Amino acid sequence: MKYKNPRVKPIYPVYRLNNQRFRIGAQLGITVEFDDPEGQLFSLASRLTGQKIEEVIKAVQDEFPELTTEDILSGLKMLDEQGVIEETLPEETDKDRYLPNINYFSRFIGITSNRFEIQRKIHESTILLLGLGGGGSNILTLLSGLGPKKIIIVDYDRVELGNLGRQFLFRETDVGKLKTVVAKKAINEMNSDVKIEVHNLKIKSSSDILQYVNGVDLVICAIDEPPFIIHRVVNKAIVEASVPCVFGASQVSRGRVYTVIPRVTGCFDCLNLNFSKHDPKFLSQFIGFREADFNPPSIAYGPGMFQLVGSIVDESVRVLTRYAKPQSLGTQFEINYEDGSSFTHQTWPRFEAECPTCGSGKIDDWEIFKYYQDKDVKYG
User: Fold this and answer.
1) How far apart are the first and last CA of the chain?
2) 294: which of 155, 249, 284, 288 is 20 to 30 A away, CA to CA?
3) Per-residue model confidence as pLDDT tens digits over 285-336
């Protein structure tokens, strides 16, 4: 019998609507209603508080002698299929700080799953965070609450007064200090469970990244300068190291997230090939952008940045734990800060025979890569 000590998930209330119907849950979209004119299923659900299944069966049969054990197990199966019950497990952590996370993750598990397993996977992970700007500094704050084993941070910049409107990790007294130094101290104070390793370095080549990827489970790329070019540099490194990477970037009033799992999804160069194959305007647009030598001012609205970084960190957890399906595998997940909407772009494939980075293709076969050259950033 797969049911041992089943219970209705504590995140959901169980209550009657009338003598014909009852509910489990009280949130639009995930509340489940049951027609139950005889009250048998309600009797079962209201007794699922963690006691042994044999005790539950006896109590329900005392009230409804006509029900067989198979009838009651059938009712349990119905509740399980609706995602509202779980197995009662001993508390596997003595740290109350993570219990709200675990309660959230219980939404996504069934009777045969362990709600602690998702948080455990986070605890066992090492994350390489590239950049401590408007994205990276806020990503780091969110990561500290999740409690990964280790975060390796790479950045070269110092805190400026103009950062403080959207980089909420920093304080006025930090102006002029290295961001990595401030970040390490701040996270040590936020969550002493997390080991923080910092490196003061401006990334200019894929080799700059490869020296830090040993033992890393996930890379988060929160650097976007030079535009597009730096993502290609990071892409080369993570493909060579076979480490998944969640990329994020913000442009004016929208943000985008996309994830590359090397040799599983299409990589960033595959995206360039996809546009080259299917968008007749792509090459001319890219050339025009590069030739414009556009140097945009800082454009960052704090609430908008939080929409973006929340999506980046949640996507990172999805990739690490698979508690829910990732939203940006081989596609760009776009967030509109203006109205709070989001959508996914068309998925791009992996071009194994044509991609010069994750496949066996030749770089000279694709004109687009000629325009990724930059005097300060090297691809290799």
Assistant:
1) 57
2) 155
3) 999 988 887 777 778 888 999 999 999 999 999 999 999 999 999 999 999 9
